Amino acid sequence: MTLVSLLFVGASASVDILANLMAAKSRGFTRLKWGLGAILLVWLAFAMLGQAVKTIDIAIAYAMWGAIGVLGTAIMGRLIYGSRLRPIGWFGIASVSMAVIVLSTA
Length: 106
Hints:
Number of strands: 0
Helix content: over 70%
Number of helices: 4
Shape: flat
Distance between the termini: 12 Å
Strand content: under 5%
């Protein structure tokens, strides 16, 4: 696991968060430009994740990517769209994040 690979995971997750926000803005892909933008960003996110898995185990890289993506999407959804999670939702995100930390130390 190298610093460059970790940066690829982080950048990939950030791009995925943007893709999720664009998908929401597309209103079920009825707004074509937003929908196509989301698809393009998901493709880019997976291309970047593919670079990370050259030196990080796929299970660890994907778990890190997913945890960052879920947390980032929840936070940005709240800030941009006013989406609200109940406390149990935040507990679930925290639980997944803790599991990823444990997995990455294995």
